[in-house]
Amino acid sequence: MQQFDRSKEDLGNSIHLEHVNVQVPDQRLAQLFYAAGLGLTRDPYLMVADTNMWINVGRSQFHLPTGKAQVVRGHTGLVIEGRAALLDRLTRVRAKLADTKFSFAEHNDYVEAICPWGNRMRCYEPDAARFGRIRLGIPYVEFDVPVGSAKRIADFYPAIFGTPAQVQNGDGTMARTLMGKDQYLQFRETDAPQPEFDGHHVQMYIANFSGPYAKLKQRGLISVEDNQYQYRFRDIVDLDNGNVLWSVEHEVRSVTHPMYLRPLVNRNPATSNQNYANGYDAALWAMDPAEYDPRDMRPRN
């Protein structure tokens, strides 16, 4: 009988990293960057006025409410298939974003794209060895944190949230905690000065909802009591002395939240009115079965 390492499928308490939220001053420029440039999809059902825009990325999203620009102190990793097409789209929006912080550049294994207000994205091709079955999605968000904080950040998440975490890079300069299937929050040490936290947030779904809440509340770390299904905290602290290691708001939702794993529409950015063909409107957010399992996927007898 074939033996399997069942522990490879353990997630811990966090089920899904659902969205990254940053305010943007101009919805038109945001639409040009996230939809026309990156090739992502505006949610057709929710936040369709000019006060907010939700952008679908596979099973995850960017939330872009109108307001003073917020910038993640680090970068967001994206899996977007088709480097040549991505570069072409970014080239086509460059003139309209000329008076902003927008830029993009090719690197060996990713394309870096910077939004009009300075948020950095690293766009990778699908790679089962690195990103699992994701063909379109957000595999990680990485934060630039102070030197000497990675190990203590890695201690925080298992103790408070029950999410597996470890220190990587050999020299212990990056902490990584699991947020969902093939999704992570990463914290990479740097000696570069960082701006003050501006209020941006990431959102996670967790199975044990009340346990982390009690631990955070005991330490005085709950920042917002949103509703029955959701609360927030912002400070990651040293478990020994309570000192703040890093601040980024976490929107924490239960898996009983009405929007848990809500189906998201993802368009195929290669389709236009000039080359339209029935059946090619949607983009797939996961790899085809044959790309991650060599077995015949036809129905079994």
Question: Overview of this structure, please?
Answer:
With 301 residues, this protein is of the alpha+beta class. The chain has helices at 27-37, 83-93, 128-131, 150-161, 210-218, 289-292; strands at 14-21, 41-42, 54-57, 60-63, 74-80, 103-106, 111-114, 120-124, 136-146, 165-168, 174-180, 183-190, 201-206, 222-227, 230-237, 244-254. It has a single domain (6-292), classed as 2,3-Dihydroxybiphenyl 1,2-Dioxygenase, domain 1 (Roll), CATH 3.10.180. It contains six helices and 16 strands. Helix 1 packs antiparallel against helix 2 (83-93). The protein starts with 13 loop residues before the first strand and ends in a 9-residue tail after the last helix. The mean pLDDT is 93.
Fold topology:
Layout: E1 14-21, H1 27-37, E2 41-42, E3 54-57, E4 60-63, E5 74-80, H2 83-93, E6 103-106, E7 111-114, E8 120-124, H3 128-131, E9 136-146, H4 150-161, E10 165-168, E11 174-180, E12 183-190, E13 201-206, H5 210-218, E14 222-227, E15 230-237, E16 244-254, H6 289-292
Parallel strand pairs: 1-4, 5-8, 9-12, 13-16
Antiparallel strand pairs: 1-13, 2-3, 3-4, 5-9, 6-7, 7-8, 10-11, 11-12, 14-15, 15-16
